[in-house]
Amino acid sequence: MIPYILHVTVITTVCFLFYKLLLQKETFYRLNRWMLLGSIAVSFTLPLLPAPMIGAFGIPGLRLLINRWAPRWWKKRNR
Length: 79
Prior knowledge:
mainly alpha
């Protein structure tokens, strides 16, 4: 529950900063209202979606690329 609340807080903060920096002085009040409502909806639904695994095992061929081009000291450390 705590990670979900933290994710919602971070996403809401980013959306609010976007609004403050770019949209606050606009006179399109209907657009601003929908943007704020949409950002709240996105903030609560985005953390519920599963995130793809990104890393050496998530990207095909990355392990082969690391084994071929990485220095020896890095290979020994990351086994």
